[in-house]
Amino acid sequence: MNGRTTPEDFHLSKHFGQILQRQGRYEMAEETHVRALSGPERLLGTDHPAVLTSSHDLGSLYRKQGKYAQAEECSMRALTGRKATLGDEHPETYLSLLSVASLSYAQKRYEFASKHYPKASEGLSMLLGPEHD
């Protein structure tokens, strides 16, 4: 964005990438998401929650673009890291599991998806409540 490298700048970059993604401007969103991932990774380490969130976001973008190999790499990295740092029953871990299940479904790996969708959905419902959207 402006060449600065503070955590706040990477946080803003992450949100800007999400806006670009919602607008369908995937190429610019990808560049922004990569920047939002690589900066904090250097400053905070590979297993920091902010880095794992950026990896999750980049994986979601790749899935929308049909770049399934890259999506799987980023999404599995986020899931594995979140399990290790946040635990199996943390909402962010369940979101990553849901993302991996969604990716598996898009790849027609229905057995994997059908095994993990309910686990993620039930976990999120249990943690957030049945009325949470």
Q: What does the model show?
A:
- The chain has 133 residues and is mainly α.
- The protein has one domain (7-128): Serine Threonine Protein Phosphatase 5, Tetratricopeptide repeat, CATH 1.25.40.10.
- It is 80% helix and 0% strand.
- The protein has six helices and no strands.
- Helix 1 runs antiparallel to helix 2 (26-44) and helix 1 (7-22) runs parallel beside helix 3 (49-65).
- The longest helix has 19 residues, at 26-44.
- The chain is globular, with a radius of gyration of 15 Å.
- The termini are far apart.
Quick overview:
With 133 residues, the chain is mainly α.
Provide the descriptors you would attach to this structure in a database record.
single chain; 133 residues; mainly alpha; globular
Q: Which sequence of SSEs, written as H and E, runs from N to C?
A: HHHHHH
What is the CATH C level class, in words? Mainly Alpha
What is the CATH homology-level superfamily? Tetratricopeptide repeat domain
Q: What percent of residues adopt helix (DSSP H or I)?
A: over 70%
Mean pLDDT across all amino acids: 88
What are the segments in which pLDDT stays under 50 over at least 5 consecutive residues?
A: none
Overall number of structural domains: 1
Spatial separation of the terminal alpha carbons: 32 Å
CATH fold-level name: Serine Threonine Protein Phosphatase 5, Tetratricopeptide repeat
Q: What structural class do helix, strand and pairing data support?
A: mainly alpha
Question: How much of the polypeptide forms β-strand, as a percent range?
Answer: under 5%
Total beta-strand segments: 0
Number of helices: 6
Largest sheet: none
What is the name of the CATH architecture? Alpha Horseshoe
